[in-house]
Amino acid sequence: MQLDFKIRELKKISSRSDNPTYDLAQSLDQVVKSLQALSDGLLEEACSRDADPMEVVQDMTRRRRRGENGDLEDDSHRKRMKGDDDDFCA
Asked: Which residue ranges are recorded for the region named Disordered (predicted)?
């Protein structure tokens, strides 16, 4: 991943921990790791449900809203549009 390469380069350029660029590189590294873990988790969940990853995100959002705001309207009546090229599972 090119972003990983750029982060490593920033770390090499600024190896001193008191340098703001080093702190930025450390923060970016954590963001990238978090996004990769989130993406992997979403794909794993989607594959286990045989669902589109976007559908999994929408389900998670609905569950969070229900938890914060009580019951939310059920939109399960929406049809899922899935084409032949939507194979996300390996």
From this structure: 57-90
Structure tokens at 40: 């992997």
CA gap 59, 44 in Å, rounded = 14
Burial of 46 (0-12, 13-18, 19+ CB in 10 A): buried
Q: What is the pTM of this model?
A: 0.44
Q: What is the pLDDT of residues 53-76, one digit of tens each?
A: 888 888 888 888 877 555 544 444
| DSSP for 16-62, written as a single string | STTSHHHHHHHHHHHHHHHHHHHHHHHHHHHHHHT--HHHHHHHHHH
Give the helix/strand (H/E) hosting 67.
helix 53-69
Distance between first and last Cα of the chain: 20
